[in-house]
Write a structure and sequence with these properties.
By secondary structure, the chain is of the alpha/beta class. It has two domains: 133 residues, D-Maltodextrin-Binding Protein, domain 2, CATH 3.40.190.10; 89 residues, Periplasmic binding protein-like II (D-Maltodextrin-Binding Protein, domain 2). It contains ten helices and 14 strands. The chain has a three-stranded parallel beta sheet. A three-stranded antiparallel beta sheet has the order 11-8-12. Strand 9, helix 6 and strand 10 form a beta-alpha-beta unit. The longest helix has 22 residues. The protein is globular. The termini are far apart.
């Protein structure tokens, strides 16, 4: 009887140990493995930057980045769970793991590349210097020295304005920027040439103009966390982007939202 009891206890210990081991998370799983296991990829974007991501008249979230994110997710075999967030919280959300990726017209810069992995670019844009129609004092980026501009905190537009000696006021949307220009609280703003033309298509009477733009286009790509476990995710998304470009999907989405192809360098 004692022998039987010992055998039962031994078997129970083995089963309990196995159950505990099976409940432990797989520490070898990559971020891509975790995403596929969950069946979704969490995407951070603004939702207030037309035509990249915005709400239409039906309050539906639409835009170039929204559709790119969904197309990439489909290529990965998962759903895109999109979370809206202000610009200055997007990369912080990526750092903390709130988002798996950020699809928000993120320019690839040397500083950002030191902290994040970037996929192959999916768009290329130039930066425009925008002022009121009545402004005849600001004509070049060099004229920004000592001037006040309005731009999203932490954006490349803010960094560029500051590099020319401007004082930058933080804002959330292009619409807010234009209102600040009209009210005289800011003298200029920097933004994507594409966003400017899209805004003017909706607001053709807006009293603003482009006085100059950057010569070189900035590459726009998708950042991921810079770890060994995230490298496979970057590679998978880069492959997806390359396939979407080869299939003509990227060009089609670009023409839908920008009126032209911004997906080729």
């Amino acid at each position: 009887m004692k022998k039987v009891i010992n055998l039962l206890i031994g078997a129970l210990i083995v089963l309990t140990t196995a159950a505990c081991q099976s409940s432990k998370p797989n520490t070898d799983a990559t971020t891509l493995d975790s995403i596929k296991s969950a069946g979704k990829i969490v995407v951070g974007l603004e939702g207030t930057w037309q035509p990249w991501s915005y709400h239409n008249e039906k309050e539906e979230l639409v835009g170039f980045d929204v559709e790119v994110a969904k197309a990439v997710a489909t290529k990965l075999g998962v759903e895109a769970e999109i979370v809206e967030c202000e610009w200055d919280g997007l990369l912080a959300g990526l750092d903390s793991g709130r988002f798996d990726i950020v699809v928000n017209g993120v320019d690839v810069t040397e500083e950002r590349s030191q902290k994040y992995n970037f996929t192959t670019p999916y768009a290329y844009v130039k930066t425009a210097l925008i002022v009121l129609n009545t402004n005849e004092e600001i004509k070049t980026f060099e004229d920004l020295k000592g001037r006040v501009t309005a731009n999203s905190i932490g954006s490349t537009y803010m960094e560029l304005a500051e590099s020319y000696g401007a004082e930058v006021l933080g804002i959330d949307t292009l619409e807010q920027t234009i209102e600040m220009l009209k009210a005289g609280r800011a003298e200029a703003t920097l933004n994507s040439t594409l966003s400017f033309y899209d805004y003017m298509a909706v607001q053709p009477d807006a009293p603003i103009k482009i006085v100059c733009e950057t010569e070189d286009a900035l590459a726009v790509a998708i950042p991921t966390r810079k770890t060994d476990k995230d490298a496979s995710l970057t590679e998978a998304i880069s492959t997806a982007i390359s396939e979407l470009r080869a299939e003509g999907t990227l060009k089609q989405l670009s023409e839908k939202y920008f009126g032209g192809d911004v997906t080729s360098e």
